Amino acid sequence: MASPGLLTEVDQESLSRGFRDGLRDGWRERRRWQPLAEAFAMLRLGEQMVTGLLRSLLLRRFPWEELLLQTWFTIRVCTLPALAVSLPFGVILALQVGVLAQEVGAVAFTGAGNTLAVVRQASPMITALMLAGVAGSAICADLGARKIREELDALEVMGISVVERLLVPRMLATVFVAVLLNGVVMFFTIITTLLVSVVLQDLPPGAYLASVTTLADLSDLWLSLGKAAIFAVMCTVIAAHRGLRVTSGPTAVGDAVTGAVVINFVALFAVNFAISQLWSQIAGGPLG
What we know:
mainly alpha
């Protein structure tokens, strides 16, 4: 008979099994709420970046040199990829809209359909995807590398805010480049649809240009620019959040960059859908 103060082998096995089951259930519960916790952490980081921007401007310590460097870097790495994507996208869009317009007998509205699709959807999405895939990756990798080298901790020890010194200039640079690049992508994509419609579908250029303003108006341009700016802020916040959470080693930096790109792509499509639906309900329009 076992002593009252000692556990039998059966009791020890039951205790060990219960401990393992408890750890497993706790891990599952943590994994279940982890996406929501990360979303709130990103929102918190976005709030810190906005307040850091206002604080640095009011205290006259905004890092203008860093802003110029990041702006030039973003322009260099994002312009050519965005233009390379806009050209084939314009070809596909022109062919699809042209065939549809011929089937329903609305060839005169080919230019209007192409322009509306480019201004409202294609241009800001192409810009955002390029920023997320190129500039966002660079931001995440830079911050992650600084994190594992303990440079960010050193800045905090010296009393320099990482948010004001590193994150805010990158956010403003991304927004500035996004707005400019959105206009460039819009122009090239519309010109591509025009050339495809005229050369391959024998549509008179005068008829195409005359229908451009039939559906799209100035409010659609403001919507496109607003989308580009919002997407740029999202890309910066998500990339910075993933970069700051790197714990150890170059492998962790690579994983953070991959995660940032994936999250950015999913979030961009979701937010684009929400903004488009909200705009259609508020402003209406030809297709609203």
